[in-house]
Amino acid sequence: MPTRPETIEFIEDQLAGLAIRTAKMFGEYGIYCDEKIVGLICDDALFIKPSDAATELFDRTELAPPYPGAKPYRMVSGDALEDRDWLARAIQATADALPMPAPKKPRPARGSK
Length: 113
Hints:
Protein name: Transcriptional regulator
InterPro entries: TfoX_N (IPR007076)
Oligomer: single chain
Number of domains: 1
Domain TfoX N-terminal: 19-97
Number of helices: 3
Largest sheet: 6 strands, antiparallel
Radius of gyration: 15 Å
């Protein structure tokens, strides 16, 4: 079942104090913090990307794949999703632990070889 727009709005509201954005990806959503992809929102559930962030911060999550065949991410339970302070700390810690993405190569102009 695809993620409902209400779920995206709720997660964005919970993280309102952070530099986050969501984007459609492969029929579901990616969530970015500080322009780093920190997780996925699939089937109305938030999955935080594994990182070197403090493991004790993620005691409220369980490892699970966000979609069939995917590597495990940290799935956020419903009660943890409701905890705005914990969620903001977990997302920001993940962003802080991840490297900056490599710059994208410019695409050649259309019609040029």
